[in-house]
């Protein structure tokens, strides 16, 4: 007896019910896979934003204690010139390291001579900016001009507040690390949108030389490290810590994930939502199949009794109904996968966009389907289908033959 073929024929003995079950499975899979593809694209965008948009790089090297005690006494936890040179020489020679560049945090007051407002920002080496911004959205993050020691990039709302445009000179007032007031002029070489409504009215990017002059220091707060392969981030962190400890430098190395709180929070939220939706879909699929199989068993009680009277073993009865459930699940998964890829292609080609929460710019709506995830979701549905069919199939096989033949 060809059990799989017999089971397939039995599946479509009640065509309407079987199609409804397959459709329920397919619709649930489409919902899960499309949402999974959407959040995969969100994760990819957030990763690019953290590494390139926020210029966190793949790893950040700080002197031990900088992130805690250094907030009160930063001068004590900065790399001096000699330490910075040793660090750069050590990291530049490591395999897999593409770039090592210093970074400083700055803050103070920005003025146009008539009014002032606060600013916060970062200072970088202009020549290293192209590598740091690689992959970022065009126009995001701000650009510096190599060779312009006083050229600054200003967020669009900050420039608007003070009435500045590209080419104007902005006065920056800060406190040095020793607490003295200091002021310098910066020429605006770029005006950009930070993409965040909370920072777009106060953010700027300055050359490292300008920031060190404003803070009156030759120290470096942190070093940004770019790797050839983001997948080697953890391994590179271990090697870097070991290499720098051999040089007598007590450091802590943070990954871009650890420093980008927005990425971590958004990912945790979406992971929870995806798990919740998947759980609901799996329950619906399992209950649909269990209901279909229970009704099929009840309707075919006399048939089962006849088959057993003709010599069919109980395990064969169980196998027949389990195969039917397997066919329902496999057909539902196949239809769901086909519809998923079709809808994803339509969405990706539609050119839709939206403005995410806490953002000041729109982003494209894309679905980045991942074949392993689609396959894993399908496999989970098939496994649940087999479990859901097990109880009705077992009950069918345990029914007394005489009672089954007499069932109406």
Structure description:
By secondary structure, the protein is α+β, with helices and mostly antiparallel strands. The protein has two domains: 3-50 and 263-406, no CATH class; 55-259, no CATH class. Helix content is 53%, strand content 18%. A hairpin with a 5-residue loop joins β5 and β6. The chain is elongated. The model has no long low-confidence stretch (mean pLDDT 84).
Described by the principal axes of the CA atoms, the overall outline is elongated
| Average pLDDT metric | 84
Q: Would you list the SSEs in sequence order as H and E?
A: HHEHEEHEHEEEHEHEHHHHEEHH
Helix content: 40-55%
> Can you tell me the number of structural domains?
2
The computed structural class is alpha+beta
Strand content: 15-25%
What's the tally of helices? 13
- Quick one: how many beta strands? 11
Radius of gyration, whole Å? 31 Å
What kind of sheet is the major sheet? 6 strands, mixed, barrel
Q: What is the CA-CA span between the terminal residues?
A: 27 Å
> What does the oligomeric state look like here?
single chain
Runs in which pLDDT lies below 50 for 5 or more consecutive residues are: none
Strand order of the largest sheet: 2-3-7-4-6-5
From the structure above, extract its key features.
13 helices, six-stranded mixed barrel, 408 residues, elongated, 2 domains, alpha+beta
